[in-house]
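== Sequence and structure of one protein ==
=== Format: two labelled lines per protein ===
==== Data for this protein ====
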Amino acid sequence: MKAQTVTIVGMGRIGIAIARALRASAAGLTIVGHDRYRELVQKAKDEWGAIDKAEWNLVAAASVADILVLAVPLAELETTLSVIGGEVQPHTLVLDLSVNKTRSQKWAEQHLRHGHFVGVVPVLSVAHLNDGRDGPEAAPADLFHNSIFCLMPSVSADPHAVETAVNFGRLLGATPYFLDPAEYDGLAGGIETLPGLAAAALFSAVQKSTGWRDMLRFANTTFALATQPLLYGTDITGLALNDKAATLRWLDAYLQELTDLRRLIHSGDREMIDLTLGNLLIQRERWLRERGENEWAEGIDVQIDRPTVSDQFLGGWLGGKLKKGKGDE
């Protein structure tokens, strides 16, 4: 059987980790990498050995893909889809990794003439959640191992495309977890948008203080990690404005928590402050423990029988299950 081609657009930490996980699998895939920074793509091939081919041209990279992974910032996604929209093959599975699924689905409907679009989010393994690293150099093959692979297909998504997306996540070592795109976006407000805005407020408050020139000399890991979400500034803006009412609700809830903490500190009640922080620490440790166990009571696993990786994961669908792509009716 002809080796299937996976093209990954975006050679950041997520894109490189996906490439390494696929190369470590037994699927026998050809992996093509593309990034707007040419030196990064070349390094991914020559130094890191994460991809088989570095392709400078976005259209050329997309046109050869059986599976096309879009690991680009939300701010770049619509432009990317508009450029490749007419070049994707009819059978190609397009996996969108952006942080907003309702907008990405809308853009796909506008720009993709062919192919099958499924929104996904590979979630980091608990072993890598606290390492504070974010660059492509910190992209091991097990970045998603024993975690979940969120899938947000539209109601009209081809079931075989969704099945292939599920098995793609399994190759990364992750367990499938299905969400409605709008539901995911609403939940992401608390774990993506709010941390980004909190990081902005924290950095702004400290930077404006009279002691900033001294503090910047010895600000350490705590401050660096707390403000790290500013790296994704354009995505934070898009998320915050996508559903302003939801963003304002999250901000109001956050401000209320800060107000409550301020009240405790003003009261000088050390015992209550210790109790509050201690309880929150227990809940955080419980979250990390449950993430590490990855055994959720509601049962997120989806069993899909397949005789072999090559036959069922790729060959079964890409070899002929999908006879038509979007625009081929």
Summary: The chain has two domains: 5-179+299-321, 183-293.
